[in-house]
User: Fold this.
Amino acid sequence: QQQVKQSPQSLIVQKGGISIINCAYENTAFDYFPWYQQFPGKGPALLIAIRPDVSEKKEGRFTISFNKSAKQFSLHIMDSQPGDSATYFCAAGGNTGTASKLTFGTGTRLQVTL
Amino acid sequence: DADVTQTPRNRITKTGKRIMLECSQTKGHDRMYWYRQDPGLGLRLIYYSFDVKDINKGEISDGYSVSRQAQAKFSLSLESAIPNQTALYFCASSRGARSGYTFGSGTRLTVV
Assistant:
């Protein structure tokens, strides 16, 4: 059973635009929600993460929005640049039981065009 | 040197062969993981280990085995490789449950 659903599967955005990737989770034991960025030929790398005690976290052009009641969270990339072209994975984890290791979404391939 | 090193980077093997993928980390992390990446399926957990004496199956452990030789080393074995095990394999390590994972650069495995 997939516990983290990610959409869209692929996304094309013009340079300067806003990229939005959405994720939804089911396991209420999750309390840690990171996003990873993966470039071709590389492993995923941690981009930004949020805990459910806040509804938003911003780091530079990257923002996570979190809706605990809806069990949804999203990544917004402001002023998208060609160098942001990569695959993005959301993930969810927690401290106990089945949540004690990260469960990843299926990934979103982002292409930022000139 | 990379924090998490995977060897080999690429491997082509024949059906039925035994193959081992190796992973070592210099982060001092207790937790290590093996994931498999397939297009459209994301990263799926094969096995994980929270310390040297703790080994756990992930969601897709059938056909795989692991060995945690030391805190820094975690190897993945395919006892008898089959073509549908063709994939990109990633090793990762972490300090705890709510800390970021450090991934290796991956091993691209092709079973023919």
Notes: The longest strand of chain B covers residues 42-51. Chain B has a mean pLDDT of 95. The interface with chain A takes residues 4, 31, 33, 35, 40-45, 48, 50, 58, 90, 92, 97-98, 100-106 of chain B (CB under 8 Å). Residues 71 and 103 of chain B are 16 Å apart (CA to CA).
